[in-house]
Amino acid sequence: MDKVVMYASVSVDGFIADENDQPGPLFDWLTSGDVPLDDSGVLKVSQASYDHTRAYWGQIGVTIAGRHVFDITDGWDGKPPSGIDHVVVVTHRPAPEGWDPEAPFHFVDGIEAAVAKAQELAGDRIVEVAAGEVGGQVLAAGLVDEVRMDVVPVVFGSGKRFFGSVAAQHLLAEPDVVIQGNRVLHLRYQVRR
């Protein structure tokens, strides 16, 4: 597989969080159904969202995120989210003081190094890049193969942009996946090269 996919839940006006890094209702679709998405018992989605999301999650080997996301999630308490094997953190700083060196997190400087490390760790599985500043930088560098987004029916007006501060035009192919769930529209686009 060896694909690099940029992904996040996003408002219809293109934001992944508000100005205070809060997702607001962007994750409401994860509790808007009756089909358990994982073993937590908290995440319950529509059958359409379950079929789409579980299949995708099962393909991800590594997630790339920026240090900002790592910090605001408290490093997911040292456990990668959604059953992912590894997280590669793009940062100019070392791991936090007291960080467990056995945790499957890898701290690298720069997006090219992050993608290379993630591809090495992922093997034939997908490398997922969190949308936002880091995702936008990876897209701008021509390293993203596919863009996936869970579009939620809310308008933020301002906040953290899905594509970060990307200033250049990037063409995507027609959506090859369009799935309607409860309070969400799942979309997938291939990146034109």
TrEMBL record:
GO molecular function: 5-amino-6-(5-phosphoribosylamino)uracil reductase activity
Gene Ontology BP terms: riboflavin biosynthetic process
InterPro entries: DHFR-like_dom_sf (IPR024072), RibDG_C (IPR002734)
SUPFAM superfamilies, sorted: Dihydrofolate reductase-like
Domain Bacterial bifunctional deaminase-reductase C-terminal: 89-170
Name of this protein: Dihydrofolate reductase
